[in-house]
């Protein structure tokens, strides 16, 4: 199956376990792989035959910049569920939510979760 890939979508949200995270917020990055058959849009060159990634971005933005969640696992799951429900041509998706600056001591680039979900048949 083919993929539409969106890399490093950037948002500001208020997810986390600590009160400071919910009050001050922080950056979140999202990578997506949208699994869909792209043969028809490749042949027709018609947006109606594909998944509009501008609309995908807006859907993800709504979730990441919306209601605060404790875990980025829940953020990723909400993104996957909403995408699968909103886009008929989407068969499955891989969602990676990256937290570049979690409030934990140590030296690292980021923490992240990645999930894969498929549409129910």
From TrEMBL:
Q: EC number(s) on record? A: 4.1.2.25
Keyword Lyase belongs to the record: yes
- Provide the function of this protein: Catalyzes the conversion of 7,8-dihydroneopterin to 6-hydroxymethyl-7,8-dihydropterin.
Which reactions does this protein catalyse? 7,8-dihydroneopterin = 6-hydroxymethyl-7,8-dihydropterin + glycolaldehyde
Keyword Membrane set for record: no
Q: Which Pfam families match?
A: FolB
- Which GO annotations describe the biological process of this protein? folic acid biosynthetic process; tetrahydrofolate biosynthetic process
Q: Which GO terms describe its cellular component?
A: cytoplasm
InterPro entries in the cross-refs: Dihydroneopterin_aldolase, FolB_dom, GTP-CH-I_C/QueF
- Give the family this protein belongs to, as stated in its UniProt record: Belongs to the DHNA family.
> Which pathway is this protein engaged in?
Cofactor biosynthesis; tetrahydrofolate biosynthesis; 2-amino-4-hydroxy-6-hydroxymethyl-7,8-dihydropteridine diphosphate from 7,8-dihydroneopterin triphosphate: step 3/4
Q: Which residues form the signal peptide?
A: none
Q: What is this protein called?
A: 7,8-dihydroneopterin aldolase
For this UniProt record, the keywords arranged alphabetically read as follows: Folate biosynthesis, Lyase
User: Ranges for the Dihydroneopterin aldolase/epimerase domain?
Assistant: 4-117
Top-level EC class as recorded in UniProt: lyase
> What CDD domains does UniProt report for this protein, alphabetically?
DHNA_DHNTPE
Q: Name one GO molecular function term.
A: dihydroneopterin aldolase activity
């Amino acid at each position: 199956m083919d993929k539409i890939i969106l890399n490093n979508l950037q948002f500001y949200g208020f997810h986390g376990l600590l009160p400071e995270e919910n009050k001050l917020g922080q950056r979140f990055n999202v990578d997506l792989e949208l699994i869909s058959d792209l043969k028809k849009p490749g042949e027709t060159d018609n947006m109606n035959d594909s998944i509009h990634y501008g609309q995908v971005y807006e859907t993800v933005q709504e979730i990441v910049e919306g209601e605060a969640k404790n875990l980025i696992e829940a953020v990723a799951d909400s993104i996957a569920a909403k995408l699968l429900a909103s886009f008929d041509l989407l068969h499955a998706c891989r969602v990676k939510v990256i937290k570049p600056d979690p409030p934990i001591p140590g030296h690292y680039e980021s923490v992240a979760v990645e999930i894969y979900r498929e549409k129910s048949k």
